[in-house]
Specification:
The complex is a heterodimer of chains A (284) and B (162).
Chain A lengths: L6 E3 L4 H10 L3 E4 L5 H6 L7 E4 L9 E3 L3 E5 L4 H6 L1 H6 L1 H8 L4 H6 L2 H7 L6 H7 L3 E6 L2 E6 H4 E3 L2 E2 L6 E8 L4 E8 L8 E10 L7 E7 L6 E2 L1 H7 L6 H8 L16 H20 L2
Parallel strand pairs in A: 1-3, 2-3
Antiparallel strand pairs in A: 4-5, 5-10, 6-7, 6-10, 8-9, 11-12, 12-13, 13-14
Helix pairs in contact in A: 5-8, 10-11, 11-12
Chain B lengths: L1 E2 L2 E2 L10 H8 L18 E4 L2 E4 L12 E3 L12 H8 L9 H14 L5 H7 L11 H14 L14
Parallel strand pairs in B: 1-5
Antiparallel strand pairs in B: 1-2, 3-4, 3-5
Helix pairs in contact in B: 2-5
Classes of the chains: A alpha+beta (284), B alpha+beta (162).
The complex binds flavin-adenine dinucleotide and FE2/S2 (inorganic) cluster (2 copies).
The site of flavin-adenine dinucleotide has 29 residues of chain A, from strand 2, helix 2, helix 7 and strand 10.
Chain lengths: 284, 162
């Protein structure tokens, strides 16, 4: 089905794109279009203007910046998943990207687009929260940074203003490991998360000194569950310690029942996947 | 844009989807539309070397791109090994999903000439088939992979009763 009529512009620079967004209330950014176009085809969303950022130079890179890596707004899921930099410094994100949609979706959809879209059941959202990432937004007032844990505000709502563009996500290096795992809607790990969890741990000398676990798919937004990390700090990360910590996986989460499961089922899965992600993050 | 080696210069409405451009503007109706939700993969084409869903791609965004469709995979009347594999191993029944399956398989074999069964199944996760149960599609891709490597394709896994 055709989307409703709209104007189309493909600016060459971030400044030009922001200028269009600031001047036109009905304008919307398009990156890979893999979430935007399906909504427009179903006419659930009908922007007056599409600002295609696909022709802006320099946004398609994954860069090593010393203490962090930066993933630009046009980096596709497939590129995030295959990148050696991401696999070494942010395995949870590489795994989440490799489990996002199918081959064709990963060839076109972008990591930053998935984050900006803020779907409650997306994969990479949980990964960037657990990894302690920083979002870099560019708007009429210049550039600002937003911590991943504060970026996801509500269902399909991020902290971005309508005239801001997410130009990159920065992931700090460090820690001993990270991982992401989920149950997919089509069974196995296929499709959006019925429930998923990402974990990041630092265990320098046999004792966990810091840990973060984020959950997705089970509530009104992907979120950091502080209680899981707190329960792990000071332990040796044994299977018992992981199991005890994972019991906290729904603390502070507003659970949401959907077609794929009841609140009770989702709460159960959250604990299972928190434990699996932690076990994988603590593995070699 | 260039489609199957021929360059076209057209003005289109921004909301024209690539699949409609191919089918209605260029008359290339091999690329199918099987859904409204971007899930079925019947519309799969290869843009600049990557398989994508042409129903979820604005034609204007493909300005300057190199597009390949199912009409472009055979050369000089000779079937592409993937097409031959679908023929030889009965990789289709109604055939609706086949153009998309073929394009996903061609893209896979260009990146990975020797995929295992699991890799093939993973590569066609974005292509739905309501007839075959996928089994013979996997065999068809294995057939093509062997042929393209210059090897003898594995024997069919059915037996003709005597
Ligand atoms: C069949 C199918 C299966 C899928 N399965 C999964 C899955 O298993 N897991 C999963 O997580 N996702 C899944 N998705 C969604 C997919 O990950 C999308 O690619 C992603 O959500 C959006 O990225 P995009 O670049 O395509 O963004 P677009 O569709 O272009 O944009 C999405 C939204 O984000 C905004 N936006 C995009 N980029 C920016 C930016 N840089 N700055 C500001 N705003 C921006 C747009 O304005 C729009 O509102 C699936 C999609 C499809 C079609
Ligand atoms: S027509 Fe179904 S995915 Fe494109
Ligand atoms: S052969 Fe009929 S849908 Fe695949």
């Amino acid at each position: 089905m055709y989307p409703r009529k709209f104007d189309y512009t493909a600016p060459q620079t971030i400044a030009d794109a922001v200028a269009v967004l600031a001047a036109d209330e009905g304008a919307k950014v398009m990156a890979g279009g893999m979430s935007l176009l399906p909504l427009m085809k179903m006419r659930l969303l009908s922007p007056a203007t599409i600002v295609d950022i696909g022709r802006i130079d320099g946004l398609d890179r994954i860069e090593d910046r010393g203490d962090h890596i930066a993933i630009g707004a046009l980096v596709r899921h497939a590129e995030t998943a295959a990148s050696d930099l991401v696999r070494v410094h942010a395995p949870a994100l590489a795994q989440a990207a490799s489990l996002t949609g199918d081959v064709q979706v990963r060839n076109k959809g972008t990591t930053c687009g998935s984050l900006a879209h803020a779907d409650i059941a997306a994969d990479q959202t949980a990964a960037v929260i657990a990894l302690g990432a920083t979002m870099v937004a560019n708007g009429p007032g210049g550039t600002r940074e937003i911590a991943a844990a504060d970026f996801f505000v509500d269902t399909l709502t991020s902290a971005l203003a309508p005239d801001e563009i997410l130009t990159e996500v920065r992931i700090p290096k460090g820690g001993s490991g990270s991982a992401y795992d989920k149950l997919g809607r089509r069974g196995g790990r296929s499709d959006y998360a019925v429930a998923g969890a990402a974990a990041w741990v630092d265990k320098p000398n046999g004792t966990i000194t810091a840990a973060r676990v984020a959950v997705t798919g089970i509530g009104t937004k992907p979120m950091l569950v502080d209680a899981v990390g707190a329960a792990l700090v000071g332990t040796d990360g044994s299977p018992e310690a992981i199991a005890a910590a994972a019991e906290h996986a729904t603390e502070g989460v507003t659970l949401l029942e959907d077609l794929y499961g009841s609140e009770e089922y989702k709460a159960h899965l959250a604990k299972v996947y928190a434990a699996r992600a932690l076990t994988a993050a603590l593995g070699d | 844009m260039t489609v199957n080696g021929t360059t076209y210069d057209r003005d289109v409405e921004p909301r024209t989807l690539l699949v409609h451009f191919l089918r209605e503007e260029l008359g290339l109706t091999g690329t199918h539309v099987g859904c409204d939700t971007s899930y079925c993969g019947a519309c799969t084409v290869i843009v600049d070397g990557r398989s994508v869903k042409s129903c979820t791609y604005l034609a204007v965004a493909a300005d300057g791109a190199d597009v390949r469709t199912v009409e472009g995979v055979a050369t000089d009347g000779e079937l592409h090994p993937v097409q031959e594999g679908f023929w030889e191993r009965h990789g289709l029944q109604c055939g609706f999903c086949t153009p998309g399956m073929i394009m996903s398989s061609v893209a896979l074999l260009e990146q990975n000439p020797d995929p295992g069964e699991g890799e093939i199944r993973h590569a066609i996760e974005g292509n739905l088939c309501r007839c075959t149960g996928y089994h013979n599609i996997v065999r068809a891709v294995e057939y093509a992979a062997a042929k393209m490597r210059g090897e003898e394709p594995p024997a069919p896994d059915w037996e003709v009763p005597s």
